[in-house]
């Protein structure tokens, strides 16, 4: 029967709620649902309560426990009918867990949202007038010792408006800044705006090309006719009004050439740029003027407490910042951290410059992967002796170049294991793959070995960099002495590494390509006789393999079946199915039969044929058994490299780890192999071209230098540096372990020029990830140099001109020396003022970032600080906190999915505070966070009702009592203190979801529960005011506008809440005993309710086996009376277990909850008394131990292991008799010790009572 559902089930069914995790597991969750029942004093009838009528229409959108109804509304509810035994559904209790769903839709009326927006606007205006976020370093000794907190966020890139992802990470710094301000610290929370790098200029140039093409289309069509329907950039604003039909006509050759890719014009439209203004963005400088002010506007509207005096845009547009970056790189040069040489670098072919992470559309974090490419020489004589029809296309292509002299032809195979060449039995090609025949040099035109390093590279940097070796076809045929057969992608990479000549494209917009004699299918290569360097067999053959990727390596795979399980199984498949492979791929028996695995490396425990041995042991069926093959591969490769010993060749007897490089170098010296690099994964530049690895001259930062690396590594491992996450710390250690040279120069883009190249014939820009490592130091003095102008076009309050900012001035300001700069025209007191700002605010206390920046920016920052301040680790960053990316409603945020949210649009839809709450609730780990629209919508209602409650409480509309405090008051005050302390701990640990749970959701829950405990006596005015003030203070870091409004406008506090202190209470105000009493009440009510539901079900003819259901016309008698049994102590067995558990070590986990290791299980298992028990008793003892240490310990701490409760449980329940009676819908309830029987009770219920867990018996009065 529906009416017999438990209260918890009824609530969840009605409001579609998930289960709620809680401090004491399911018990607290059920107790909270039970407490949501209105007390009997709210109804005028003494009859048994029933399920209530539907929720009033104006609250029908609330499908979450997160949105409490206005408290006064509850008092006027009409009494429920008496047709059911179940108590009324909750109307007061809303929300405990931040994991619970919020209201699924915004209120139909936008009045609540608009009211919150108007509050936010008014509060922001007040902040603007009073400037609470503008703080200078103290100049007087009295205030110089005041603690400070300096936090920052990697300045966002200004190629568009800020979006929810920016907002999420910004919030994590913002929340901490506000929290630390409430701890009495001076706060520096600035925000710069990043314009350095390639993307802005690339977009501007792309737009410029599109405009030129549009104009050309307008002037003349493909056949010379006038293009009437294509509008020029100047007339596009008129076309915008012509509707969808005209918009479709605008699709031109620009879009056609890019396939489905959007043009830059379309991208700008999608960004919300008015069409009439798009043409202006063809000038890169327009981006710098357009987007930074919008970013400042959106961040301010979001309520962030930024000191905008210190904001700046990067690049040489801001001459003060430009001078600072030049000083930084001059210093790095003096310290020997900058070098110049030929490096293997990810290159954008279109831009002809290195493509760093921030220059990429995809492939961030991807670096060059080095291979050894081995030449498998074609045996022409053998081909002529035994011609194969499928080789004819290849033969014809080679015949065409005979006139240009003999050329060595080879299939080139990329390998990571050149030391295994001795075991080659064949090579593999992809039958369906496309392979090109590329003209190649025997001696490359570029070499990493010819790199010039250090200061001597400055002369080399003056010469023009040649990325491609351009030749005509005639020149290439005459010059090249070899032909490489490989994939097109690998040929491109080899061309930019000096191995292949390139042919210039006729189309000026097209890129050059390697000289290709023609292409053949992989089928045309099967059966080719080859000479493989170092191989035991004098001739090997090319065979088919169906799993080769043409986007990895060269498309040719050498086969070493002794040590490579994939190679072995592929060879076995061909041997086991000779007829199939002959008919399908033309494979002849003599190409396969004579070839057996060759023993080349001996591995302890695996032998000399490890791949063969493990494939047989693990019963690998075929080359399609990928999981087993991968496991074998990892085992063989790892053990082979570290423990394997070579059995053949000049390095026989040596370990593989020692011999690998020696063997590779021997192959290269004999011109039988070459070093080859390609991107680890595909990398696409923002200009749209797929990147290659090029050998190019680069200024680079030598992060791999041993002493530098060891210094940074030691700091990361020290107690001075924090990440608040073991996973993040591990990532930093990993990055420092592999990070080596980093190219820091660019020829294309925006930014600051390397100082010593600025006036040269080839000025070089500093790459965007390299000039963004210590700019936090510039925040300290920016407001003194440039005032309120982020572009630095006017002098600041000190009147310093940029020409006065010499390196010597910066040396003094940034603590490189204590001597004032000689000859400086800047007054000494101004220099000291800047030095004071730096020394007060530095080091950086917190930097919050997305986790992707661990692999570059954040680690670079540590290296740069160690280089600039080598003897001052006290000036290095103190903490990096990283987070994952943001999703929207569990989906990746993207415009194509229609869920892209800009900060501007999010504020309009949800309000700033509601967005901030939803972002706090989104997640705290490095996993991707989830912004839920329904959470934001539900928060609108919650904050609106909070403001309404505050107004009613202060105005007198809400009935409140005064006078002495009751037990309920004391319990409530203790819960306020508990929530406040737990919220503080969460903020300190950067656990903002937990801080929101304790500082908002549980604060509301405790208020509603307090109201229920008070019943018709009403809440106490002092408690309500205390709760309101504390609620504002605990929530202020996350939702500052509504808290400021209530604090200042309703509570009439004299100062701003942003300047108030964190709530404080008298010492020992937090009483764990009172807290446990409170939780016991909650849990008891829920347990009692479940017991009553079962009793009602049995009276109604429930599910008991053999029981007949009660006739429909016969109502079940109402359970109106109950007796509660309370146990003073545990049964003997449980006392024995508790005594043992008290010996077990316990500690607080990462979530702040008490927990224990597995030692307690051994303590109980190994006890002689427990071992003497029978099987059932022993099982009961272990189950009890597990429950206490898993659930009860988490909720109550060490007191969960006490043999008796630290309070009188019977007295507690008796003092709240009225509340319990009303919550359970009873007319009478009595309380007895568990050793006293009640005359109406002949059940075993009283024996179930335990300390902290009373039992109950219901009966008909």
Explain the overall architecture.
- Its EC number is 6.1.1.4.
- It is an enzyme of class 6 (ligase).
- This protein is α+β, with helices and mostly antiparallel strands.
- The chain folds into four domains: about 220 residues, Isoleucyl-tRNA Synthetase, Domain 1, CATH 1.10.730; about 350 residues, Rossmann fold; about 300 residues, Isoleucyl-tRNA Synthetase, domain 2; about 90 residues, hypothetical protein PF0899 fold (2-Layer Sandwich).
- About 40% of the residues lie in helices and about 10% in strands.
- It has 43 helices and 36 strands.
- Strands 6, 7, 8, 9, 10, 13, 14, 15, 16 and 19 form a ten-stranded mixed sheet that branches. Strands 2-1-25-26 form a four-stranded parallel sheet, covered by helices on one side.
- A hairpin with an 8-residue loop joins strand 14 and strand 15.
- Helix 32 runs parallel beside helix 36.
- The longest helix is centred in the C-terminal third of the chain and has 28 residues.
- It is globular.
- About 45% of the residues are buried.
- The N terminus is likely disordered.
Sheet/helix structural class: alpha+beta
The name of the CATH architecture of the largest domain is 3-Layer(aba) Sandwich
Query: What assembly state would you assign to the polypeptide chains in this entry?
Result: single chain
Low-confidence stretches: 1-108, 226-260, 450-454
Instruction: Assess the beta-strand content as a share of residues.
Output: 5-15%
The biggest beta sheet, please?
Answer: 10 strands, mixed
- Please state the CA-atom Rg, rounded to the nearest Å: 38 Å
Distance between the termini: 23 Å
Q: Considering the protein shown, what is the CATH homologous superfamily of the largest domain? A: HUPs
Could you give the count of β-strands? 36
Q: What is the CATH top level name of the largest domain?
A: Alpha Beta
Overall tally of domains: 4
Q: Kindly state the mean pLDDT as a whole number? A: 85
Backbone shape = globular
CATH fold title of the largest domain: Rossmann fold
Region (Disordered): 218-257
Biased composition (Basic and acidic residues): 218-232
Domain Methionyl/Valyl/Leucyl/Isoleucyl-tRNA synthetase anticodon-binding: 969-1092
Protein name: leucine--tRNA ligase
